[in-house]
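Hi L., both proteins are below.
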Amino acid sequence: MFVLHHLENSRSQRIAWALEHLCLPYEVKLYQRKADNTAPDSLKHVHPLGHAPILQMEEVTVAESGAILEFLADEYDAENKLKPDGKVALRKYRYWMHFAEGSFMPLLVMLLLFKKIPTQPMPFFIKPIAKAICNKVIDSFILPRLNDVLALIEKHLEVNHWFAGEKVSGADMQMSFPILAVNSVQTLEQFPAMASWLARVREQDSYQRAVGKVGEFSPF
């Protein structure tokens, strides 16, 4: 049986969804975040970086969401439920698998950090300067690039039911985290194709079972 090391409100839900989609047995080991919102040191006993998700199967330990999804696709996906086998679908799958953490999530993390900086303890006369600098970075650097990313996703989903084409795949699981992150801070009214995709995700039995075990994350 697999053991999914799950940090509350984290990327682990992607892996629970994949395990449910493949009908693989697993147990969830939950870790609570510390007061500063970081992972507990006990996770480092499982993997040196102490990040979640981490998936264990007997003596095998795999970390990083994308690597775990690829591991499951390579070792436990004889029916191509996670990784499509058609040339076009496979090309789309690979692109969005890398896009999620390569192009999308760094911008969201930067946005979160620059929004938090002015709220941290600092001398009162520094706070307006910090806020002005952070707002400048957000408005001139982060948001223009994030808007381009969202426009690209919307355009793709206007002509694709799922990220790899006509069937749900690991690419949808990988992309679910950043899209849920965006949806946690704004509505998707201006992105109807993305909103429809998210509604389809939430209708998936495997997704609902995963949410029942680890919850639906709201990263921001």
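That was the first. Here is the second:
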Amino acid sequence: MPRVLVYGGNGALGNAVVSHFKSKGWDTISVDFSQSSNAAHSVVIEGSSKEDVHKVIEGLKAKNIAALDALVCVAGGWQGGSIHEDDIFTKTERMWQFNVQSSIASSHVASKLLNEGGLLVLTGANAAITPTPSMISYGITKAATHHLIKSLAHEGGLPKKASVLGILPITLDTPSNRAAMPGANFDEWTPLDFVGTQVYEWAAHPNARPASGSLIVFKTANKITETFPAQ
């Protein structure tokens, strides 16, 4: 049975990814701050990257899980704010932990446990391709994630023939986004199921994957979602 680990697997997007892989007969593992009732296995972490990585690896070992076919990191967060704000350092540290540290931690796990030819997916952001003056901490950390993705595509990082891809959503249709922006046009938001389906297709069909290191934008208009490489 193929196996996928979802970092951030108990959040809205993580649950959607877990559910889709589960429906296709994959063994599923959630890594998150809380126990998942959806995934077959669950590892609960506390937010300290070095200790969390050790806990994930040891937790999988205790479950007799020695290898992964795919690892998907959808952990992260958003924070607005400009450079002149007094709490810019606090915001940047928070975004660094949520966006960069989670990507590094999941990539480290992938470097240890991903099978040859496996897939690592990290979550970037379409907004970080261009300047983000009103959400500077978010943009900086997502741009750093994009750099990590491109770096891991080179030899010396992941196992042989493994691929790394970045998903770059614009706006995801999550309950928290709907609550925060009730007047928005939800037809322009990407459904979580679409993301889960696309990631599964890449994991299950290596020949259908974009080139390793690609950053793939998810854009939705009038309820129709398309994916394409970032420019």
